[in-house]
């Protein structure tokens, strides 16, 4: 309505120019106004009022007189007030949760503002603030009326609350008409950027009623949009390449965003309650508030502080904090929950108990420790905590991390085993110190880290054995052997001991895996630095000679052979920088692999497929002359293939032995049964798979060129093992032998072709 009046006024002023048409238009306006007043029942005594209003409207279009338009607005307002009071004022009806009189007042005020805006828009630029005030007031009234209609849907006071009397398409229509009007007035320079910002937020906030069923969602959305949108709408100077905001402005906007999110906590609570079907926990509510605050600050950082690295890091840390609160849902003290009356009412509901019953409570305070540990890790990774440059801070950081992780693991997984708590905390502190100082070494760390690793290795069997011995002794010390309940309690305790030991194995496997990965990463970085240093020296030496001739193919091949030996020399020169690292990494890798094999036996009964996932752990082995002579980067795949072959062979022997000794006590000669013939047959078929595995493992160790017929000759030996055997492990070995033979043949062929190219 406002946009049509503004645009049509400019168009009519251009058309009505000559005197004859002006008189005709004025007469027509007067007649039409009087007729319309008579139709709606306006008293004939006051019929001059609408006629005069029509006259002033025509005068506005013909003479371009703003006082005439405001006279028309005044007279029209009087007629609207009479119409409303004459027809609706005495009705005792509650509409949209309020009396009809109140609703009539709002409608009259909104109509008067709508009629006044076209005239205010034509005022001089110094008075454009009046247009802005009128538009904002009109938008506020419209938001209030539509919110009441949409969320307070009862026609009468005790009417049906679920019947929506205001359709959704009307909300969408008024929203887009309002945004189009704001856009048009902004392009014509009728309103300023601040008014555009406020009006855009108000009109856009009305769309929230379509998605969230909350009676305050419009105002909550408006506040959030007003807090989030300034970086997008108020700072549009694209000619400046630097930050368009100052630092204090960024802090101020971020604080406003946080306050706006805090103000909207009830709506967030209602949305989460609708999503979960039950009231969310305090940790979940706080986590979503933090995430919303971080996401709302993204425009500030992305558009105005994209060159400030610390701002990006802080934003990542804030969002990560919110995600951790959502995932962990830690308990929050009552003084931190800032609960409102709505949240208190939801907490005091007894529906959860009546529906879900009483649930066993579990201590949730350890979640604060894991949140602290993860946030400290992120802060260190993003260099918010400068542990890279301060040794004391590095030591304090690693100790705090270890204590937090140790207490969390003890309380979360070993709550009943109090004797293990101190040992687990010491283990985690040692692990954190080892990893941190291996990544950021200090002057004395190379001397202390091997001893810390030795302490971790020694704590493993002590912790494992101590967990079982203490509880078992407590069971054997009891005297109630005849009591049935006592026997059940002992069985439960034994099962708990077995579960705790399995958890300990998993914990130490993860610790040794982390240590092996860290050492492998550091050794690879050191080799890379040495290779770059040697390459730089070689490049400077070749450039000083001024050699401009190209290498022949044979010389180029020799250069590549020399480049492949750089890691070997770098390992020998590494003694001054930490010769213990390869040995410690190898021990950690082997222990991790061995513990994983034990877990495979305990959890899956010795699954054959698991070895294909566990054997790649051995890729973390490092070149160490004290470990295996001649083992280097060239032989890195040899432990993997040997482990797979060896595991399957041992598993086959165990399966054959188990079938013979536990399958048939009668020692019959039935073919295919668990007897001596069964054992001899399957052992012979198992031996037939050995040549392919031996040849391939030798090839993986040396990569020496063999005759093409060797892998092809061993390939048919695996076919009887696949077809005849009764043991699944032998079949897997046969299939693996065929794959090994084909792979060796293809690799050897490729090496031969590559050698011919160099020659």
TrEMBL record:
Name of this chain's protein: No exine formation 1
